[in-house]
Amino acid sequence: MNRIVILGAGTAGTMMAVKLRRALEPEDWSITVVDQDNEHLYQPGLLFVPFGLYTKRDLFKPRTRFIPPGVDFVLSEVDAIDVDLQAVKLKDGTALAYDWLIIATGARISPSDTAGMLGEGWRKNVFDFYTPDGALALSRKLREFRGGRLLINMVEMPIKCPVAPMEFAFLADAYFTEQGIRQDVEMAYATPLTGAFTKQRCSDALSYLLTSRGIRLETQFNTGEVDGGAGKLSSYDGRELEFDLLVTIPTHRGAEAIARSGLGNELDFVPTDKHTLQSKASERVFVIGDATDLTSSKAGSVAHFQADVLLENVLRAIGGRPPLPHFDGHANCFIETGHGKAILIDFNYDVEPTHGRFPLPGIGPLKLLEESEANHWGKLAFRSVYWNLLLRGADLSAIGPQMSMAGKWS
C-alpha cells in the first residue's frame, strides 16, 4: 500500500485530499490528513466580524464534513517532519510514514515578534482581526468607539490576504459614516510597502481610494515598537504615529512544526519551487497554500489554482515523471471598498492586475479593476461557493489555474 500524508486540513489540504482520493485507487493508495482540531475556519469571513456582518457561527464548520470517504483523518498536532526517514512525528510520539508528503500547514500571526505589541494595550487599544478571538474583541471595541485616531498597520509582508488591511480601512470608513461619527475619526494606514499594494496598477487605484476617503497613507513604515499605554507606534527610522485605536496585522509565520523540522526560511515558510510546487528539501515533498515561501498571494483563490497544478504534478511524480512548471502565480480577489461596493483584481507573477471582464471573457458579469456593487455581491456570494463547491472539489475549470488574458487589457 502506497502512502500519501497531507499535513493540514484547511483550504489547500482539504482540496488536495478530495482531488487525490478521486484520482487514486483506494486499494493501492492510502491518504491520511493530519490537523490539530476539527474546526475548519472560513478565513475571509474574519474581515466582516468586527463590523457585525458575520458572527462566529458563520466562520466554522467541522473539518470532517469535507474530508472525503476513504481518507483517514488524524486529529493531532504535528511535532516534526523528517524528510530523510520520510516520516511525520506527531505530538503523542507516534510516527506516520509516507511515500509522498504534501505540506499544507498554513500561516499564523506572531504578534510577539514586534516589541510591545503584546504589552498593556493588547486587546484594549491594540487589536488584530486575523484570528477569531481578535476579530470578536475588535467588534466589541468598535461598538463603543466614539472617535479619535484609528491607525491600521501592516507590520511586514507576507501576510494572508494582502488586501485585507485596506479592506478593513474602507469598511471602517463606511461603518463610521453609517454611525454618524466619521468626522470625529482620524484614519491612517501604515505599510512597509512603497505604495498601497505590491502591484503598481492596483496600488495606484487603491492609493487614490484611500486619499479620497480621507485615509492618510504612510508608506515605507517599518514597524519597530508598539506602546499601547502611550498610544504610539514607532518605526525603525524614528517615525512615530499616535493612535487611540490600533488595528494591526502582525508578522506572519509558517507553522511551528516547520520551524522545529528545520524546513523553513527565516519566517518558517517552506522554500518551494515557484512553478512546480515541489519542496526544495525533498523531491517527495510538495507544498501548497500559505505554507509556501512563494511571492504569490497567500489567499484561497491561489490555493485553488495551486491545487489543480499540484494534482497533476503529484500524479506525474508517482508515475516517475518530472513535475511540470505550470503554476504562474495566478491570483484573483475581491477588495471590499465600503458602501456596498468592491473591486475585483486578477493577476499573476508577471502580469499586473488588468481591466476586463470575469470570469467569462467579454461577458463577465464582473468587471476587473473597477468598483461595482456586483463585485461586492460576488464577494459575499463566495462564502457559499467556498463551502459548497471549492472545498468539495467541484469542477471550476472555467476559471483555470493559469491566468488568461482573453477579454482583458492593461
At the first level of CATH, what is the class of the largest domain? Alpha Beta
Q: How many angstroms does the end-to-end distance come to?
A: 51 Å
Kindly report the average pLDDT value.
96
Low-pLDDT ranges: none
Query: Remind me, CATH topology of the largest domain?
Result: FAD/NAD(P)-binding domain
User: What radius of gyration results from the CA coordinates?
Assistant: 21 Å
Number of helices: 7
Using the 3D structure, state the CATH architecture of the largest domain: 3-Layer(bba) Sandwich
Q: Indicate the structural class.
A: alpha/beta
Number of domains: 3
Sheet with most strands: strand arrangement: 5-2-1-9-20
Shape, please? globular
How can the largest sheet be summarized? 5 strands, parallel
Number of strands: 25
Strand content: 25-35%
Q: Name the CATH superfamily classification of the largest domain.
A: FAD/NAD(P)-binding domain
Verbal overview:
24% of the residues lie in helices and 28% in strands. It is an alpha/beta fold. The strands form 8 sheets. Strands 5-2-1-9-20 form a 5-stranded parallel sheet, covered by helices on one side. Helix 1 packs parallel to helix 6. The radius of gyration is 21 Å and the shape is globular. It has 3 domains: 2-106 and 255-318, FAD/NAD(P)-binding domain; 111-252, FAD/NAD(P)-binding domain, CATH 3.50.50.60; 331-409, no CATH class. The mean pLDDT is 96.
Task: Write the topology of this structure.
Elements lengths: L1 E6 L3 H13 L5 E7 L3 E3 L18 E3 L8 E5 L2 E5 L4 E4 L4 E3 L2 E4 L3 E3 L16 E2 L4 H13 L3 E7 L9 H15 L6 E6 L9 H13 L2 E4 L4 E5 L4 E4 L4 E3 L2 E5 L2 E3 L1 H6 L23 E3 L12 H19 L12 E8 L2 E7 L7 E6 L3 E5 L4 H18 L17 E2 L1
Helix pairs in contact: 1-6
